[in-house]
Specification:
Length: 146
């Protein structure tokens, strides 16, 4: 009497190898996705860090200009070289200047002058990027040609 060594109900070696290959493939795909996500997060953090640094450098320069304007007013010197404009509105004198943050943004400052005192009226970041929204897409109107 011969014994049958084959297993009728078990998993064959070939199917277990396919399951291991599939599991390994899933792990590789998920690790690549995690790496790409981490790389994108790093790039975003660097971009935000550079923008923040540029803003605070411009803020520091704007503060120095404000201090120079105050010193010049106190000492009776001209402030024309430090400011972009001087104008009068509603009986108050306003002084304005701007400091470049980067190629698309600037820090715009407006001060209200009363005597030798200056009060900050506006200290805002202004986006100077020109955007053209006149891109047209020709859409078929429904008429068939002759």
């Amino acid at each position: 009497m011969k014994r049958n060594n084959s297993n009728e109900y078990g998993i064959n070696i070939g199917s277990s190898t396919l399951i291991m290959i599939f599991a390994l493939l899933c792990l590789v795909v998920f690790s690549l996705l995690a790496y790409k996500t981490a790389l994108n997060e790093k790039n975003l953090a660097l971009k935000i860090s550079n923008e923040t640094k540029a803003y605070y450098e411009a803020d520091y320069k704007a503060t120095k200009i404000k201090n120079k304007i105050e010193n010049n007013i106190t000492n009776g010197k001209s402030i024309a070289s430090l400011v972009d404009y001087e104008k009068s509105r509603n009986g108050s004198n306003y002084i304005g200047y701007s400091v470049k943050i980067d190629e698309n943004k600037k820090l715009s400052v407006e001060l209200r002058r009363s005597g030798s005192n200056l009060k900050v009226v506006k200290w805002t970041e202004v986006n100077e990027a020109s955007e053209d929204y006149n891109n047209k897409l020709d859409v078929w109107g429904g008429e068939l040609g002759d």
